[in-house]
Design goal:
By secondary structure, the protein is mostly helical. It folds into three domains: 3-165, no CATH class; 179-340, Intergrase catalytic core (hpI Integrase, Chain A), CATH 1.10.443; 369-447, no CATH class. It has helices at 3-7, 20-26, 35-40, 47-51, 55-71, 74-94, 106-118, 130-149, 179-190, 195-207, 211-214, 248-261, 280-294, 301-314, 319-326, 331-340, 343-362, 369-372, 412-424, 428-439, 443-447, and strands at residues 222-225, 228-233, 242-245, 378-380, 383-385.
Amino acid sequence: MSRAAAERRSVPVQLRPARPTRKRESHQGTIDLPLTKTRRSNRLPTWVEITGHLPQLATTMTDYLNQIAISSRPGTVSAADLSLRTFAAHLLEVDPSYDAVGKIARHHIESYKLALASRPGRDPGRAMAVATIRHKLGMLRTFFERLIEWDSADAPKKAPIFIGDFPKADEPLPRFLDDPTYAKFMATLAKDTNLRRRVIVELLARTGMRAGEITGIRDDAVFRLGGEHWLRIPIGKLHNDRTVPVHPVLLELIETYQEQRGPSSSGLLVVRDDGQPFDRRTIHRYVEAVAKRAGVGHVHPHQLRHTLATQCINRGMSLEAIAAMLGHRSPRMTLVYARISNDSVADQYFRAIDAVESVGAVVPTNDDTEEEAPGHQRQLANGHCVRPVQLDCAYQTICEGCGFFQTGPQFVTILKRQRDDATAQADFERARLFSELIAGMTTDELSR
């Protein structure tokens, strides 16, 4: 957790050595903060400030954060911290008399939902994103559920947030670079004179790794196995490490960079000039700089990951292999790329379109259809069907094949005529149907 995030926490972690910043803050006492000023400045209150007004609620929430800090990543704890302080700030505004989590009622959640929906988002003039609302409600619901599971003395009887409270999430396809745009981007990258920057962006584009994973790549991460070179990607977002094959261009680039750089004092493949690992913002700027020089618009690091996955699935790579390359734990994470390229849908679509267009090319365009399609007349009971031979019809025997169809000896002549016509047209299915209708009549019926 960052120093700034730690300083927002007032209760030290009991099962770990407490950080000095947390300890100092826990001894600062409380601050009588004007709530209206906090709201106007759009600044969330700290835990010390919340404790001054809602001490029991602040204690329960910070105890929860200290517990999950043992089993969760710092980023998860920071997100939970932010979500809980957002909800606590809302309670301070609408109902500061409720100084206990166990007393939180359904109407508090309903007013909180309305408050989130009315809050401005990052973009001017736009409301908070649906994904952000879902995230904050999800963090809060998990908080309630954990307290109930832990039999906390301040737990509510049941979680006051339900599945129906979550706004419907959009399911957009991943944003990726099409082939011409990707080619321009990579051609521009190849001309980059900053070798370290090129190594970083090439790693993103050719391995599909996340920007945060690059910061932990070891200097000896490339190894040879079975005649191929592989790259070991360290434990990252999903708590797993993996190996990916190394493209020959990338392999040569890494070796050239290591040779020019010399031995790594940190043990990492790429570090900043001060020897510290790269941060995501710098990596983001590197990618944006290449995109700007290439003239392809805005490109972010994760877009290169989506691009690689899309390219691979378009060229026949299996979903299982793509999942292993990207480090996905759930098949659902990888299936989103199948929505981008579905060969079965494309093949069937173009076959159908070709068939429609070929029929359209031979269908007569004048009104004298019967003369334009000689030899293709189908005998009907009271006339002929003169549709072109290329056109199929699902209704040509719809009546005769129906279970409610009735016929009799008085129609034998017509049925025989239809049978003989179908035989002459090599339409053996129709011929068989009429033969069965005729054969179904008894000898007595035929002799009447």
